[in-house]
Model the fold of this input.
Amino acid sequence: MADVHIVSWNVAGWKKTVEHIQRFKGGLPSFFERHHIDVFCMQEVKLSSKTIAAEGAKIGADVPGFESFWACNEGAGAQRQGLNGVATYARAGTVVRADCEPLGERELDKEGRCLLTDHGAFVLFNVYVPNSSGGSRLPFKLRFLRALRAAMQRERAKGKAVVLAGDLNMKARAVDSRWSSRLVEVPRIAESLDSCVSGEAREAAMSVAAAWPGIVAALRRKEHRTFETKRNGQSFMRWGVFAESTSGEVARLGHPMGSEEWAQASFQVDGAGVEQDGDVIFGPASVDATYVLQRPGEMSVGDLAECMKRLAGVELSQRALRDLATSFGGISLAPSLCQWFEAVQRQDGMADSFAEVHPQAEERFTCWDQSRNMRHENVGARIDYILVDRGFFAPDGASAHPVCGLKAYAGRPQDSPEAALAAAILGGLSQPAAYAGGGLPQLEEDEYAAQFRAEPGTGMLYTPPQMSDHIAVTALLRGVPVAAAAKQRDAASLRCQPHRSSKRITDFFVRKPSTAELPPAKRVAVGAA
Done:
């Protein structure tokens, strides 16, 4: 029996991320050691099998004491070669078998989004779930999720416990997105004033109810057109949503958008749906669509605040908006996706490891829009998960170590929003990208060192923003039976190891990197333990 520490991370391009890691003393072996890794799952590696075979040493496919397995997009489908891709590293001798086509449907498997590794007592599905692409890929996403659920059930029928790790591209709970992103059914607010958590929220709700008919009328006449915007001294043409306010002035709503489709989908008041072929429908006809994207009258709290200010001339305080989100806010997710998530947890008995161990944690997100420096405001979402069959996961036995290395901030407990913000910016060691351009500052040694925790545990690893727009999530499994790997790999497992298929004699004489640890950080993170 042994403890197993699982780390899962959307690396947003492994070549770039591993280059950062290799810059620092000890390289990838030290990274694994300092994170106490037993199993390391990556998503969005963005590598083809050919690249892995040719550049295995450069990308760290062979880490001493570990084996790596890969599922790649070879360009056989609609998406170009090298997109997506997932990889799993596990301690040598602990993987019984691997499968880079575990869903059993070629169209789904060929995108390189799912990898199964069998660890004896449990199987691990490492996934990068498709996004909905504004709704057009929702049918494909649901096909993928249904096939994934069926594959997990097949493994349970063999007597295996199941662990699901990866970027699920959706939120499990309303609190897994910032308050401004939560959806409210605006027409129901006036009917539910008793649900308000504060007097300020009640006043705001009454103002919204009074202004809503005028907002609806204005948004039904909204226009989508291009306009010029400037950034870093350069001019760009972007799409915007324009509507007439109660004062008669035309106001632009929301951020500049990259496409007309995105602008059309924004600030909808009459609902949106999608047909099985991916055709997105807006307005009253959407109620008859195959899938619902957004119900009539639903709007995010942030968009509602924008409409109140720019169309109705009423500016609501941030406290009132937060309270509205707490009182009425729901998950900003298509109902069919909510149903899938609920079924996996309630019917299939999977536990959301982070939520189980840290149920009171506020504003703990795993992904941010770094092009707008949103990590430095902690405006993000938790879309990265490690789900574990409940009978195989004991929260009481999970490490009580904090969610991250920052126990508190300004005297606030680790579950507070203030502590979450401090964690996101590594206690002030991480600096935002300059508005003049040039991207994020170079990753310094002390900022790199701040990600490491003293002990393994269930929670989040705040990896520096230069390495990915996601951070890693972790789960500590206690008392897991140790597996004995097969002496000879089957064909399916061998397909998951393209770097093994083209070993050269010189590969066996490459000097192994030192496992020496990094020197202590020179700067001290604010609020660090």
